[in-house]
Design goal:
alpha/beta, Nucleotidyltransferase, domain 5, seven-stranded mixed β-sheet, five-stranded mixed β-sheet
Length: 314
């Protein structure tokens, strides 16, 4: 099993996005030219169940089991992601060392005092980006074990635990980055969930920057919350520019599909003063010949599928 890693096999891979608000499971097959939706469904977490609690774990096991049965899921191997709220991300300069084995230790020494959990329990991965920079991703080992136990009890085999920024990059590259010019374009991806928003800056497949902002679609009512989100996005751009001196995001891409009002997206783009586009990942996937196993109504979909589809395309 690949922990905090990435897989290349893209044939009928199952992606599971178990966020704080909902569970989404989707199976996509890809031949390199087009992605087809084979199976998929979602379950919303009941409001009376707190995310991460023992009750939540029991609910998650039951929800995964029911989704696997109702969608007639044949492939029991899944690629999953730890929820954004349980992942710590930092951006650093790559340490200078002649011993590659020491790189992770040196990076860990720089972030351990910032971690929101016990450093002794941390599992980290680093991703070299560009200009001698590196993205460091850490999560609590105990939380990883808890997630693995959930999938095991739901009779699913986890073949990879990926990271949400890479999943969003996968969705962008596969659905909205198909032009030759996109391979060199630096873009900002904004994925607005109900209670938070995930921000990624990338150059095509190269993941450069990632951050979670505590403002989601439920809070984006009225001008003030929208302005606060724009301030957070401006702070992301400022931090990005301090790390990558010669780069600036040239386009804003919303990956939230139909879950966020387009007028809200337009207002955010206007205040950010950036060219923008709304990307509906679900609309970009072809339906397989048979709809059996697909519990998704694409015409009135209020579920954000960007992360789950990106995991399935890992």
């Amino acid at each position: 099993m690949d922990i905090l890693g990435f897989l290349k096999n893209r044939a009928s891979n199952v992606g599971v996005d178990m966020g704080d608000d909902a569970l989404k499971m989707v199976c996509v097959s890809s031949n390199g030219a087009a992605a087809k939706l084979v199976a998929g469904g979602s379950k919303t977490r009941p409001e009376n169940i707190k995310a991460g609690s023992v009750s939540w774990q029991r609910w998650a096991i039951e929800a995964i089991t029911k989704l696997a049965e109702s969608t007639k899921l044949k492939n029991r191997q899944v690629t999953v992601a730890i929820p954004a709220s349980e992942v710590f991300i930092d951006h650093l300069k790559m340490p200078k060392t002649n011993n590659g084995d020491r790189t992770e230790d040196l990076l860990f020494s720089r972030i351990k005092h910032k971690l929101p959990f016990e450093a002794s329990d941390a599992m980290i991965k680093y991703i070299p980006t560009e200009d001698d920079n590196v993205m460091v991703i850490a999560t609590d080992r105990e939380k990883i074990d808890r997630h693995l136990a959930i999938y095991e009890q739901a009779n699913l085999r986890v073949k990879s635990i990926a990271v949400w920024p890479a999943a969003l990059v996968n969705s962008y590259v596969n659905f909205f980055g198909r032009r030759k010019s996109d391979e060199e374009a630096v873009v900002m991806l904004l994925n607005i969930e109900p209670n938070y928003s995930n921000v990624v800056i990338c150059r095509y497949t190269n993941l450069l920057f990632a951050r979670t902002v505590p403002i989601g679609s439920k809070q984006l009512v009225g001008d003030e919350p929208i302005k606060r989100l724009v301030m957070e996005l401006t702070a992301c751009r400022r931090q990005f520019s301090s790390v990558y001196k010669r780069m600036e995001p040239e386009r804003l891409i919303f990956l939230s599909g139909q879950t966020v009002d387009r007028d809200v997206c337009a207002q955010i783009a206007k205040l950010c003063e950036m060219p923008a586009q709304v990307g509906d990942c679900l609309a970009a996937v072809e339906l397989d010949g048979c709809r059996n196993g697909v519990e998704i109504d694409r015409r009135r979909c209020q579920v954000n599928w960007a992360t789950a589809l990106g995991l399935s395309l890992s």
